[in-house]
Amino acid sequence: MGLLLKETGIVAVPSREQGAAPVEVLVLYTDVPSTLGALRTAAQLAQGLSARIRLLLIETVPYPLPLDEPRRHPRFFELQFQTLVDRYPADGARRPVETVAEIVLCRDAWEGLRARLPRGSVVVIGKRSHWWQRAADRLARRLRAEGHHVIRTAGVTSSAILHSGAKGLHHA
Predict the structure, then answer these.
(1) Residue 87 located in a structural domain
(2) What confidence score (pLDDT) does residue 154 get?
(3) Which residue has the higher pLDDT, 159 or 21?
């Protein structure tokens, strides 16, 4: 299984096969601990559905900058995803889960997200008990109102990240 990094509008993700798109469980990147928890839940769902995981990072680019030149360098995103790959657990995994990471560069976060979600998507969002997670709660309500199936899941503690030696995803 590999992690394929896609920068929207810059690098295309090759299709698996001609024909129907694969079933996907979408994980919204929020921060490393929350996203790790979401990936664990998504892996369990994906295995049960014979689906793949699509990890979405929504990056809003301010209007003074060209759309293909975000404030943070693409290498920063690669390092974020690399951290997830290195710490993503294979707990009880019967088989590897295909995972694709996609960076969505957009002017409006909500519109960028909506453009990437097929109707009735299964979306997993990590949850931590911090006040700024209220925004993620509002996002979950908004996605449900749009007809998506949203799962909020507990994040991973920082100590679990530091002491984790498991590697569930292998680099392509």
Answers:
(1) yes
(2) 80
(3) 21
Judge whether 171 lies within some domain. Answer: no
Listed residue (50, 48, 75, 54) closest to 3, CA to CA? 54
- Give pTM, 2 decimals: 0.74
Q: Count how many domains the chain has.
A: 1
The answer for residues whose C-beta is within 8 angstroms of residue 157's C-beta and 6 or more apart is 33
Look up the CATH number of the domain holding residue 127: 3.40.50.620
pLDDT of amino acid 156: 66
Per-residue model confidence as pLDDT tens digits over 84-136: 766 665 554 556 788 888 888 899 999 999 999 998 999 999 887 665 567 77
- Cα angle 12, 14, 16; round to 5: 150
Phi, psi at residue 52, to the nearest 5°? -110, 165
- Domain presence at residue 16: no
Q: How many CB atoms lie within 10 A of CB 45?
A: 18
CA 74 – CA 13 distance, rounded (Å):
16
Residue 79 lies in a domain: yes
